[in-house]
Design goal:
- By secondary structure, the protein is α/β, with parallel strands linked by helices.
- It folds into 2 domains: 139 residues, NAD(P)-binding Rossmann-like Domain (Rossmann fold, 3-Layer(aba) Sandwich); 185 residues, Dihydrodipicolinate Reductase, domain 2 (2-Layer Sandwich).
- Helix content is 31%, strand content 24%.
- The protein is built from 9 helices and 14 strands.
- Strands 5-2-1-6-7-8 form a 6-stranded parallel β-sheet, with helices on both faces. The protein has a 6-stranded mixed β-sheet with strand order 10-9-11-14-13-12. A two-stranded antiparallel ribbon has the order 3-4.
- Strand 7, helix 3 and strand 8 form a beta-alpha-beta unit.
- The chain is globular and about 60 Å long.
- The protein starts with 6 loop residues before the first strand and ends with a helix.
- The protein binds NADP nicotinamide-adenine-dinucleotide phosphate and 2-aminobenzene-1,4-dicarboxylic acid (12T).
- The site of 2-aminobenzene-1,4-dicarboxylic acid (12T) has 11 residues, from helix 6.
Amino acid sequence: MKHKSAYTVAVVGATGAVGTEMIEILAERKFPVGTLRPLASARTAGDRVSFHDQDLVVRELTRDSFEGVDIALFSAGADISREFAPIAAKAGAVVIDNSAAWRMGKDVPLVVPEVNRAAIATHKGIIANPNCSTIQLVVALKPLHDAARIKRVVVTTFQSVSGTGKDAMDELMEETQALLSFKEPEPKVYPHQIAFNCLPHIDDFLPSGYTKEEMKLLEETRKIMGDDSILVTATTVRVPVYVGHSESVNIETEQKLSANEARALLCEAPGVLLYDDPAHKIYPTPLDAAGKDEVYVGRIREDASVPNGLNLWIVADNLRKGAALNAVQIAEELIKDAR
Ligand code: NAP
Ligand code: 12T
């Protein structure tokens, strides 16, 4: 990428839950944007989004949308990314893609800057942003892996509805309102009622009985950590929370790590906020992490059922560190290397 004093940045999916957050975070972090180009479907073309003090018109995504674009942040679903990311890259943009379309591609770096920043330089036009649940997991586990080598991870997620997008956030609101006025809820986005419920089902089921979301936690963790020997098994659960994914995580390490040693490592770790003081009822909740940049870690305990085991509770804002913030951080690192 060529160094510039200001870059032309396209946001594909600019009207969505993640895209809206991307535009906010670009402004908040003063990313050197010369021109911002918000793109979405024909449904919202003509709508307006604000960026700094500008009022920008959303344009319909077409094959010609990427002329002159330096960086294209994609968050409009995997089908759109599969079709348009190569078009954007061919037009000269570096794509930072939030969907699952390109993550496991051999020539596509999958990046969490705190963990594997160096991979950015290997890109061939497309850089992938990991799944929200993977990002917060690897930010917290990397320092423990470096210190004691993690052999196995057992993770159960409690994922908020904003991970699915704006329609799912509306659905939780509408079902809650219906139920509180003694009406029948009408699930549309999810296969079952999500209000006052939880669903052990995120993304599609595979013949193995696992969901795709569960397999992303295994495959993406190995790719980002650069270690195919790590064993990961996952159960992913949707919960009636608006913003913030939580994870109950059990790890087994090669070397012994006490809970206090883990706390000391996490206290120093980039992007982590240690939030662990049960005596004062301090442990992370989604409401604590929502709107924040850090990955919150608490409830650190030694697992006495194995020789070298720890339990942790990891919470982050899935729209920020889990999606938009991580993508903007990748863009920041990308332009630091520009010359
Ligand atoms: P959302 O709130 O439903 O927003 C979807 C966005 O995509 C909207 O801006 C929508 O535009 C746009 N879009 C849909 N169809 C389009 C089309 N045919 N052409 C152009 N734009 C189109 O969803 P979201 O939560 O922001 O998520 C969007 C995608 O990001 C997800 O599908 C997923 O791939 C990815 N994502 C990744 C993570 C992660 O784990 N890192 C987290 C969340 C989401 P309109 O408003 O015009 O319909
Ligand atoms: N099904 O980008 O529904 O792989 O929370 C992110 C979020 C897929 C992804 C969700 C999903 C992704 C969800």
